[in-house]
Give the backbone structure.
Amino acid sequence: MKRLIECVPNFSEGRDLARIAALVREVESVPGARVLDCHSDPDHNRSVLTFAGEPEAVEEAALAVVGKAAELIDINQHRGEHPRIGATDVLPFVPLAGVTMAECVALARRVGGEIWRRYAIPVYFYENAATQPARAKLENIRRGQFEGLREDVLSDPERAPDVGAARLHPTAGAVAVGARKLLIAYNITLSTPDVSVAEQIARAIRESSGGLPAVKAIGVALRSRGLAQVSMNLTDFEVTSIQRVFEAVRPEAERRVCTIEGSEIVGLVPKAALDVTADYFFQLDSFSREQILEDRISSVFGESAQGDAPATRAAQRAT
């Protein structure tokens, strides 16, 4: 059985197809690192790249693609709806098969140190890799985004990076490196252009505001479509399912005199998270079996790679 780690870097570029393709090629150039998915959104101006492999290959590919992003992306020029602190905004490592969370934490810490050594990009550790309790939550690190962090880090010791000098890279900013369980990125588009409605709904349903547990949510404008969107991360689908989130958003939208226009899963999703009625999944925009994580792993690595992969979350929880 293979030892597999997933890495899901998020880049502050969702519009320039040539740059996005270059990032994908950088990962694919590392032997043993296999790209599973790439999702780009021009309104968010963000790309989510998913790749996996044996720990050594994933570590090498992660370092290579962070360097490529620093070469291609100037965060000062970035304009988009999604919060960000750097060219590579986040770099999480996820145990898939034959690897513990503790090993992913150790890998994240090594990669963080090497990012600073190679590229002089400061690093913040988050989720299970966090070295400070407050930084376990990514939103605490991202407060003020690149522009705010760039100023704060110069004078506020509480905002100093975990690795590197107390200043951001002039064009690549900073990167948050983490180790975490599987996460589902899920967006619901509303039939209104009013982003304040999406923001109100996000506040109503997210855990930090007293809403659904294991749900993070923000409201964003989809300017290219003239619509608003509730953009979410479901950090534990066994605690709060995709369907439960959808059913929570529906009445919130109706109370604000709008409806759900559609919804989407960004990137890959564990098969266990789809264990609900088929009728619901027909409402997802452009969903295909290629987005089921286990199916992609089987097609890319072969059946022997499945092992204790995403379905065995109990093993991940125990580490």
